[in-house]
Amino acid sequence: MDATLPAFRHQKFVTHPAIQLTYAILLSKQFIKCFQLIKQKKMSAADIIVGITSGIFITDLCSGIFHIITDITSDDKDKEKSIAGNHHVDTLNYNDMKLSDMIFAGTATSIVNLAPLQLLNDTKIKSTKLDVIILTGYLLSTAVMWSHTQSHKRNHFDADDIHPFVAWLQDKHLLLHPSEHRPHHSNNHNSDFGLLNNWSAPLLNVFSRKFVKAMPLTKEEEWLRTKYCTDRKDKMKQTSSSSQKSPSSSFWKKMTSACC
Ligand SMILES: [Zn+2]
Ligand SMILES: [Zn+2]
User: Fold this and answer.
1) How many C-beta atoms lie closer than 10 Å to residue 195's C-beta?
2) What is the dihedral of CA 97, 101, 102, 103, to 10 degrees?
3) Ligand nearest to the CA of 181
4) Looking at the predicted structure, is the pLDDT value of residue 161 above 60?
5) Which of 47, 80, 107, 192 has the fewest CB atoms within 10 Å, i.e. is most exposed?
6) Residue 217 has what DSSP assignment?
7) Which residues have CB under 8 Å from 135's CB, separation 6+?
8) What spacing in Å lies between the alpha carbon of 123 and ligand 1's midpoint?
9) Mean pLDDT computed over every residue of the chain
10) For residue 95, how far is its CA from the centre of ligand 2 (angstroms)?
11) Is 198 left (phi over 0), alpha (psi -120 to 50) or beta?
12) Three-state secondary structure call for residue 250
């Protein structure tokens, strides 16, 4: 696989030390605030559970809104014009994006995504649940792009490329499951935009199916749907029928259902 990958259009901006320092300060401040609220017994277990669950949903919702914006402002014919090097055109290369780039993109976008909630909570609402939601959002935003690539890896690459624990998290729908993300690439890109785990789909799909313009599949997406997945199914058949049992053969079998 080619290691020279399409760079983020705004890579210099998101990796700028001032942006990352701002993120570190906001995260530390929120972490200390939550820690003190727990210590002072002002935050209950219910606050934490509700806050984390809502935080996961809001992080996915933000990733979905961000994804809609990147898709409708990108140009499938010119990947340089897209924010993420055009994932629809370069689906396979996108999977090789550097982990640090994926994390930095998440930290930078979380500053913007969570700013309204942070401001509202600091000045008006002052809710302990919202404090947990914001902290969860800051932490999980770093995993959004990685979760998306893990979903594609399970669909398009070898079993060794994905850790069984990650596959387990996907099966529990805590991370983006391939079957949850596939409709985005095979149904003309106007549904299923959530990138963390697609929990936001029931809400976001109502909006996106109505207002986001359907875009035809790219050549690479067509190819992935047909040849690549057919080849992989053949490979899996060979692996499972082999007398020398592969340690991951059961995993391969499980992954068959995840293919296109
Ligand atoms: Zn898309
Ligand atoms: Zn995708």
Assistant:
1) 28
2) 150
3) 2
4) yes
5) 80
6) P
7) 27, 30, 31, 34, 51, 55
8) 35
9) 82
10) 9
11) left
12) helix
Q: Which amino acid is at 140?
A: L
pTM: predicted TM-score of the whole model, two decimal places: 0.83
Average pLDDT over residues 162-181: 93
How many angstroms is it from 149 CA to the middle of ligand 2?
7
**CA 91 – ligand 1 centroid, Å:** 10
Ligand 1 centroid, distance to 27 Cα (angstroms): 28
Distances (CA, A) of 59 to 87, 107, 111, 180, 197: 20, 12, 12, 16, 9
Q: Six-digit token pair at 125?
A: 């609402």
82 CA to centre of ligand 2 in angstroms: 14
182: nearest Cα among 155, 147, 215, 146: 155
Give me ligand 2 centre to Cα 152, in Å.
6
SS (HEC) of 4-47 = CCCCCCCHHHHCCHHHHHHHHHHHHHHHHHHHHHHHCCCCCHHH
- Given a contact cutoff of 8 angstroms between Cβ atoms, the answer to whether 149 and 166 are in contact is no
* Distance of CA 170 from the midpoint of ligand 2 (Å): 15
Q: Which two tokens stand for residue 28?
A: 């530390």
| Token digits of residue 116 | 């309204």
Query: Domain map of the chain by residue range?
Result: 11-217
Whose atoms come closest to the Cα of 220: which ligand?
2
pLDDT at position 78:
60
